[in-house]
Please model this.
Amino acid sequence: MTRPLARGGTLLLASIAATAIANNYAIQPALSAVAADLGVPLSMIGLVPTAALIGCMTGFALLLPLTDHLAPNRLVTAQLTALAAALALGAAAPGAVVLLVAYVLIGAAASVAAQASSIAGRYAPPGRRGTGVATVAAGMSAGILLSRLAGGTLADVLGWRRMLLVFAALALLGAIAATTLLPRQQPHSRRHARRGYRATLASLPPLLRHHPQLRRAVTTGGLWYFAFNLIWVALALTLAQPPHSLGPTAIGLYSLAGLLGFAALPLTGRLADRYTPHTVITAGMLTAAVGTALLATGLNNPPTTALGLALFDAGCFVAQAANQSRIIALNPQRSGSLSSVYLVLYFTIGAIGTAVAAPLLNTLGWQGTAFAALAALLLAAALVPIGNRQTRREPARGTGPASER
Model:
């Protein structure tokens, strides 16, 4: 029998997720200072965010499945310690190559944020899985939203190298807390206890075939993450150009509109526990669609733009938390593996949205790009009820021997 998290365990996981995922973004406001300090072109240091993304996706693929094998206190402690070591390497980097290598390692270790979500769902008390996952999702969202502000401020006051050491210290504090507060027992699954790590990795692709709900979660989640990246990249490019001609700081302030999404996440968990994730996802998609429609009216009215971004972010954040909750529910004993498959594909589809944002903006303009995002959101909303009807006809998977393939 899996014991629930100790009191405060979910909040600890949310804090770990926030401070870990923040490391992928905190250095971005200081990239020009890093380039000047290392004496290399900004174009080379501009690869740091890419290195962090590559590392993070590698962590999703190779490290997230470890939540199905190792006790949470050991796994999270080890990964946070590795994160602190990678940050220290970055702080001491003598040149760009070492810094890029460090950020691949930082991104991989920062995937502990996704492990925290899986652990919160698996070890949640009965009937509280949605709340646990949403709480950790709120932590991740806070880390992403506030990371650039915190990183930029610390870099201005302390310098970028000491800024990285501050985040390394936070990782070590998280490791100490994880050792004492997170569960010490290994995941309870006799069959998977006998399965080696390489066998677990080899079993990941077939999960898409065995779990139709996972395929639908990837499809719907990928659609809204495509729209999310499409809107935010195109927005930054549009606001930087005439007639807006805003600077980086002014553009960055628009990201604070996402705080509404952060505030909505705790409510999301309670709704997902009370109703169904499908209902919450549909509501999230429709909310995001309303926000996108407001954005499509133009960017000349800042209050309308801020409201549109707030609704857009809130809808996407809410849907993502509910989607991860339903993925973990497919088979809590394999939640790490299921989440690994989902997040790798989710981020891959999102990267496509990032890549096509500039070409679409040049071809269709801001309004055309916003309507493309709106179409993706409405398609995701239309697919959710289909998956819900099929789920009622399918036997539950992930609770018996047949699911332990």
Notes: Confidence is low (pLDDT under 50) at residues 390-405. DSSP finds 18 helices and no strands in the chain.
